[in-house]
Every structure is written in C-alpha cells, then in structure tokens.
Amino acid sequence: MNFLAHSLISLEIDEKENKKTLYANFAGDFYKGLVETIELPDELKEGVVLHRIIDKISDRNENFLNELLTEKFGIFKGIVSDMYIDHFLSKNFDSLFNDNLNNIENKILYNIKINEKFFPDNFKRTFQWLKSGKVMSSYQNINFLERAFYGISQRVRKGEILKSAIIELQKNYNLFEEKAIKEFFYVKSESIKVFNKNRRIKKKC
Q: Which Pfam families does the entry link to (predicted)?
C-alpha cells in the first residue's frame, strides 16, 4: 500500500550499497512463498527480503500510529497506516528530503519498468495505475487519497470501514502527520539495520 515509503528505503540502500532492491521491494506484495523459490535473479530477490523486513517492522504492536487506529480500524489498521504515511511523505516531500517528488517518482517508475519482463501478471495492472495516475505524488491530495481508500474498500472483504479513513484523518490531522513521519523514519532506520545484518550473516555462511 505504501509504495512511496518502500521505494525511498530502497533508493537509499541501492545508492549507498550498489544494490538493486527497488523493483522487488516495490512489488513485494505480489511475490508469495519462500524467497528461494521465487523466480527472480538473486540480486532482485534481495528486494523481496527487504520488503518483508519493512512489513514486519511496520506490523509491530508499537507502530506509532496504532494507538490512533486500532480501535476504529482493527485488522485494517495496517492498510490505513501505510496510506497515511505515503500521504504525509508526499505532502512534505520537499522539506523532508530536500528533493523534488516528481523527479523521484519518475526515477522510481523508470527503475521499476526496466524490470518489466519479471512483472507478475497481477502486478501489471497495478503498475499501469500507479504510472498513469502518478499515484505517489497524487497521494498528497486528500480527494485522491479518499478515492484510493474507497477503491480498496471495494476489493477487500469487510472493507467498508476504510471509507471512513479520511474522516478519521481529518479529525486528528496534525497528530497523524507527526506520528506518520516519525513512523517512517523509524522503520527506515530499523529496516536498513536488519537488512545489512542479514547480508553480513549470509556472507559468513
């Protein structure tokens, strides 16, 4: 759900460590089962590993957004948290990263597309939507975000509660903004630590 957050973590790793995690981290939800059995080159499989590390850390009980989301959204709190985070990253991108979001989004989409031959069938439509709708930058727009929540509510079982996500966001907008940004930077830091630790262990084996 939070394609921008996942991508930003990959970009930092790939640029600093000369890795290629971006594609499979971005598309990680579309790869199931053991990493060893996934039909991807080993250098791309590292992106699936990173994706799962990020998700595991985000799913911890101590997620900074949980106290504001659990009672209202229950099992859907993770979806809401992810989309709120991408909203605030998109909205505050220039000030948080001292960079232009449109340029970064184009860079991300270009680096995903060059791996098109590896796209799972069910990812192709999602990628086209993300590309044609400029979704990562459009998430800063509340109306666009509301439509995205509505679309997901139609696709997941008992997802009607997601239609109220924007109402809840607007009730505590500033607090959600603070916690969402704090959560992203915590997850980024911890994910990179775990990813690098796993790499060192793998090298020793």
A: ACP_PD
What is the per-residue pLDDT for 104?
98
C-alpha count within 13 angstroms, C-beta hemisphere, residue 18: 0
Residue that has been written with the tokens 């139609």 in this structure: 154
What's CA 143's distance to the chain center, in Å? Answer: 20
What is the reported pLDDT for 57? 97
Domain count, the chain: 1
Helix (H, G, I), strand (E, B) or coil at 85: helix
Q: Do residues 38 and 31 make contact, with C-beta atoms less than 8 angstroms apart?
A: yes
pLDDT, residue 133, reads 92
DSSP class per residue in 41-76 = -HHHHHHHHHHHHHHHHHTSTT-TTHHHHHHHHGGG
Q: Token digits for 170?
A: 């607007």
Alpha-carbon distance of 176 to 73, in angstroms, equals 15
Across the chain, which has 205 residues, the per-10-residue mean pLDDT values are: 94 96 97 95 96 97 96 96 98 97 97 97 94 96 96 92 97 98 98 91 70
At residue 195, the 3 state secondary structure works out as helix
Angstrom distance (rounded) from CA 174 to CA 109: 30
What the block records as the tokens of 132 is 């044609």
d(CA 8, CA 96): 12
Quote the domain boundaries for residue 47: 3-203
